[in-house]
Amino acid sequence: MTLAIKASGLAKAYGDVIALNGIDIEVEQGTVLGLLGPNGSGKTTTVRILATLLQADSGSASVGGFDVATQQDEVRSVIGLTGQYAAVDEYLTGRENLELFGRLFHLSKFDAAKRAAELLDRFDLTDAADRGIKGYSGGMRRRLDLAASLIGRPNVLFLDEPTTGLDPRSRQGMWEVIEALVADGTTVLLTTQYLEEADQLADRIVVLDHGNVIAQGTSDQLKSQVGGDRIEIVLENVSEIARAAELIAEFGSAPATTEDVTKTVLLPVAGGSTAIVNIVRKLDENKISIADIALRRPTLDDVFLSLTGHAAEDKTETLDSPKGRRGRKARR
Amino acid sequence: MSTATQTSVKENTAPRPKLGWLVTDSIAVSRRHLLKITRVPESLFFALIQPVMFVLLFAFVFGGAIDVGPNGAQSYREYLIPGILAQTVMFAVAGITVGITEDASKGIMDRFRSLPMRPGAVLTGHTLASLLQNTLVIGILSVTGYAVGWRIHNGASDAALAYLMFALFAYAITWVGAWIGLKMPNTEVASTAGLAWIFPFTFASNIFTPVATMPTWLQPFVLWNPVSCLALSARQLFGNPTPLLGDSFPERYPVQLSFAYAILLLAIFAPLAVRAFKTRNK
User: What residues does the ABC transmembrane type-2 domain cover (chain B) (predicted)?
Assistant: First the structure.
């Protein structure tokens, strides 16, 4: 296994405030690591250190095999960075921006123009290419910003909250773009406070809180830390709730819970989808009508809550996310 | 993302020495700033209109009251223009201070920093673009001056030396502005701080009134003030009125002193600014 990013004991303090408290991170070549945490957890500080923008107080890190403290030029020639705000010149057009960054990446004039045209096309910005950035929408700016970070065909891409502030559709578009990049073999380190985003894009997730790594693993591993799957059954008639709970108890791994107001029975299960089939059959045989049934896996919100004792801070998450987190059907 | 392309990009960057990259990177960055000027022509317009306004105000409103030579107001106009040129060079610094603070507090600085470019080029590019704008302003001012009666009496080589001196000093002093800009937390502070230090140098000088009219305690500062030296040298080189106070060193060797000041400013503030750029937000 080749490590594209390796950091050990990274620490950084701003005055008395500890931003990073000695964290270790390893990202395998060609994979996506999601750095998850609320505001102030140290995500951006980590990215800035790895992208040579910030010097760590202690610890060491290498990106693409180069030391971020002593081989800055080499690191910069293999990375791309997209920050929380569009890092482009407002007064220039999209094309001028990309050509400028291409030249500063030391492409020839011809190559810079060619690469700019290529990226504008790829990110669906060709029509707006010769307009000033001032007239771009938020989504277009982010796409241009991402395009700018790809000028040098980076092996390692840092995405610092790439979809913060985007509307649901633009976010979905951004996700697709990122997924395509990953399919091309780019190593990605992505920070996000959207649990769903990490779930969707990352192979592995590192959860940060107050500058410490509090958990890491795959999305599934993290979720299994807070318990397995649950099946949520919404009935037509509230009067049948107790009987339904009793009938399906044999398929559960723990006793069912019921909620009268929502006409819901919640049953923890081990088998996942096979249990659904059994439950539907059983209830149907007993003439109990089902309004809705779904397999629920714990969300990363649940993970965060159980790990830190407090929820991930961004409360607008549910509103912002393309699919309402609560109403989402389980995805494997 | 094929490895082959990656290698070709790397081969592309390898052979050129760092100084070579500083030049190409600076040109790319200065092109950015020049494009910006074309996108916001108002900024250039006001950069031009302000000194022109000063010429007209001083030439016609105050001109008659200040005595610098035998021909009254005409003498004063000839005296005034080199002074206004020096003033313009100074005031232009405020613009770059704000521009640099604005850039430094925006995401684009992160973009520059994450690229394998020479970091100093962000500043050299900006200062070069500013020099070009300054040169244009100086040109327009000279024409305005000519229109109100200012003339070059000495030879072309003296005049060329005077303009070269203005350009060099203008470039050197922008580095002071760049350094200040990098030390400022935001553009609001930068726009006041960027002007504050310019005023004493600009007005406690000989650019509008002869040194002799000022209180004796102030005269040494005025005599040694780089802005005075610049204006006095230009007057000598252009053959305009130069009412001297006496026989002090700055009045005897203004041209040499002006060049020395410019080189000194550059030698001190260019490295300071590059350092400030590298350590900002670190």
Answer: 42-280
